[in-house]
Design a protein that fits this description.
Length: 330
């Protein structure tokens, strides 16, 4: 498992494990499966793990911390997020969480990018994970709270970094333009962009990746399968894209990409995982998993050799831009 580092020297494995599903995303995950998923990831060389309070109202953080408890602390990197403070909600405890996680709604998320809110969020994350520190902290989806998040919020994270309480700070979003703006206005280390730099969609090449390269800010890419559209060898007719039914023209484009991949003996998901790592600003690709089987599948895709001719053919077919060319490939 190869390592890439941030400008301040934090090492990240090129493949990271996202653990939203440890929070019972869409359906229940067992403690045994989440622990086994981390075990498989560790045995495969993965040392970067990403979670958030939002995922299962803290359940993801608790399960990840428990699964890592016996590992040497200096041998792995954990990122979590701030901006949603979890507060008791006894009046809804008899209900199920309404944001996609199959957990009791005994807590509620409260948006808070104030300094106090961030400090309380970090303290709660440390308690849930049982870790002595969190290595990376991201502002989590600050789209509708930009004024506070991009000033007070990121300022609080930078303060924690300067105090040595966290090693890298930044933001995670489903859009690239705001992340590019944050790089312009703040001394951050990392951004996590979901779905905007994939084999299907490369909008981040227009704004985020150039400024990240210029400022030495690492980019972590998530959502490489675009809500599952690129997760099968051939896109399904009912595939999702941006969490909604994929338009016919998008499915057709993904199918054409899959056909060219097949002509080179490569699966569509393997190419989708490999593509973001071609860009020199990208330091890691984070892929979610619920159980050890899914982790093993991601590792197998990561290790798949990708011939340079595949990228050339996709560019020639007008399916990939030629705005960046690099020899960093498998």
């Amino acid at each position: 498992m190869r390592i890439r580092a941030t400008k301040r020297g934090l090492p990240l494995t090129e493949l990271g494990l996202g653990v939203a599903q440890f929070g019972n995303l869409y359906r229940e995950t067992t403690d045994a499966d989440s622990t086994a998923a981390v075990d498989t990831a560790w045995e495969s060389g993965i040392r970067y793990f990403d979670t958030a309070p939002h995922y299962g109202l803290g359940l993801s953080e608790r399960r990840l911390g428990a699964a890592l408890a016996s590992r040497p602390r200096d041998e792995f990197v954990v990122s979590s997020k701030v901006g949603r403070v979890l507060e008791p909600s006894p009046e809804t405890a008899h209900l199920t969480d309404g944001e996609g996680f199959v957990v009791p709604a005994s807590l509620k998320r409260v948006w808070d990018f104030s300094r106090d809110g961030i400090l309380r969020s970090v303290e709660a994350t440390l308690k849930r994970t049982g870790l002595d520190r969190i290595d990376v902290l991201y502002l989590h989806d600050p789209d509708d709270h930009w004024a506070e998040a991009s000033t007070t919020g990121i300022g609080a994270l930078i303060e924690l970094r300067e105090q040595g309480l966290v090693r890298a700070v930044g933001a995670g979003m489903n859009q690239s333009a705001a992340l590019a703006e944050l790089i312009r206005v703040a001394d951050i280390d990392l951004v996590m962009v979901a779905g905007r730099f994939t084999l299907l969609e490369q909008g981040a090449l227009d704004d985020l990746l150039p400024i990240a390269s210029e400022r030495g800010v690492g980019v972590v890419v998530a959502g490489v399968y675009n809500s599952g559209l690129l997760s099968r060898d051939r896109p399904a007719s009912d595939a999702k894209y941006n969490y909604e039914q994929a338009p016919a023209e998008v499915i057709a484009r993904a199918t054409r990409i899959a056909e060219i991949c097949e002509s080179h003996g490569v699966t569509l998901p393997a190419a989708a995982l490999a593509y973001p790592l071609l860009h020199p600003a990208v330091v890691s690709v984070v892929v979610g998993a619920r159980d050890p089987r899914q982790v093993a599948g991601s590792v197998e895709r990561y290790l798949t050799p990708i011939p340079e001719e595949l990228w050339s053919d996709l560019r020639s077919a007008g399916l990939l831009p030629t705005s960046f060319l690099t020899g960093r490939h498998r």
